[in-house]
Amino acid sequence: MISQFFINRPKFAFVISIVITMVGLISLTTLPVSMFPEITPPQVTINATYPGADAETLESAVMRPIEEQVNGVEGMIYMDSKAYNNGSVSITVTFDSGTDQDIAMVNVQNRVAAAEPGLPEQVRRLGINVRKQSSNMLLGVNLVSESGKFDQVYLSNYASNYLIDPMTRINGVAQAQVMGAMTYSMRVWLNPSRMAALGVTTSDVSLAINEQNAIVPAGQLGQSPNQPDQQFTYTIRTREQLESPDAFSNIIIRANPDGSLSALKILPKWNLVPRTTRVMHG
């Protein structure tokens, strides 16, 4: 028998064991990451954003409809959901070890697509991201300004604009994100008593800003059908989204029957509140 052969020749058995060990150590340094066995269970994350909503509103309007559809997806072990007061929702779906992560992501995407009709319009417009990820964070990078010239908002936007995309394209990186991201934005402060006097609601202000702060196609000049002697066609470009407080102060909230306009007004420190402007007719 084979076992009797190695029992009678222990030195030969030791040599074979040493060779096997050396081959294993050499292979360990050259083995691709994709060939390592999957130890941790695969995960798929669902991220959604509902600006201006608190955690309780997110739970009832966004998180619960998605959970009802995703719950019970093939191979799922459990689901972890988090809602934050900054308007963001994160749902992590964990699957059994050995589950194909690509197939799991496709199954979750199909369930999320079934839940989208029941979500608020603003959530659907901003989009719902479904991504696969590892259960552990691989690396954390701190971005600092040693001279103190740049503040946290500048560094956060620099990372979002110039670092996230190149890091995401690295082979093996599923997702890169800015922890506690701070983005440049325009904040509109509302005066409740003044709004009540003008009959203006927060929905009116939000709708007016969305409608008048949008990029729209303006078409072309000289497009067919045109005059026989028309030789050139020009694309009309309109102004892009508003960038300064002065531009936001020209947003009209409501046109009143008496000819006055309910608009936004600049106050000290760039605060904007509704005001009424009388239009003079000649």
Description:
With 282 residues, the protein is α+β, with helices and mostly antiparallel strands. 37% of the residues lie in helices and 18% in strands.
Short description:
The chain is 37% helix and 18% strand. The protein is elongated.
Helix and strand arrangement:
Layout: H1 2-8, H2 10-30, E1 43-49, H3 55-70, E2 76-83, E3 88-95, H4 101-115, H5 121-126, E4 129-133, H6 152-168, H7 192-198, H8 202-212, E5 220-221, E6 234-235, H9 245-248, E7 252-255, E8 260-267, E9 271-278
Antiparallel strand pairs: 1-3, 1-4, 2-3, 5-6, 7-8, 8-9
H/E topology pattern:
HHEHEEHHEHHHEEHEEE
From the N-terminal CA to the C-terminal CA, the straight-line distance is 114 Å
| Count of individual helical segments | 9
Structure classification: alpha+beta
Catalogue the unreliable spans.
275-282
* Largest beta sheet: strand ordering: 2-3-1-4
User: What share of the residues lie within helices?
Assistant: 25-40%
What does the largest sheet look like? 4 strands, antiparallel
The average pLDDT is: 80
Q: What is the total tally of β strands?
A: 9
In terms of DSSP E residues, the strand content is 15-25%
Coarse morphology: elongated
Radius of gyration: 30 Å
Descriptive terms for the model:
single chain, 37% helix, 9 helices, 282 residues
